[in-house]
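Hi C.,

You asked whether I'd gotten around to modeling the 149-residue construct. I have! Everything is below, sequence then structure, no commentary in between.
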Amino acid sequence: MASLTTFFINLASVLIFIPLNALILWALLKLFKLKENKYLAALKVAALAEIILFFAGEVFGLAFNSAVTPTAGIATLAGVGALLLATSLFITVAVNSFLVKKFYNQKTGKAILIGTIWMVANWTLGMVLGAIVFAIAASALIITGARPA
């Protein structure tokens, strides 16, 4: 049940972040002065990237859960986690760069640059919004006096 709940929370997060990621991509397109810099086109590319990365994330989650057992040591957890994080970063840049190259007809170097900046901006935005949501949830728990289970 917990994995199904996590799946739907991740899916809701993707749906919330698609317009925000499209806004970031649109701003980058304007910054790099690309001809095709409409928000609707950026929305399509961001939606495609988010869907691809959502399913890649679900596969990584399954791989992490199957690679780590309750008896695994902290070194195993750290090693598998670091490997999955590095792979996730690489795949995110690769997907973003490929989509920028394909949809905006850019050279490989410029596509990788835009894809990398887009990934860093998306992850930064995700961390900021995650911290805000965590702070709201924590303050709600404190105010209501609720105790975590």
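If it helps when you're writing up: Residues 108-144 form the longest helix (37 residues).

Thanks,
B.
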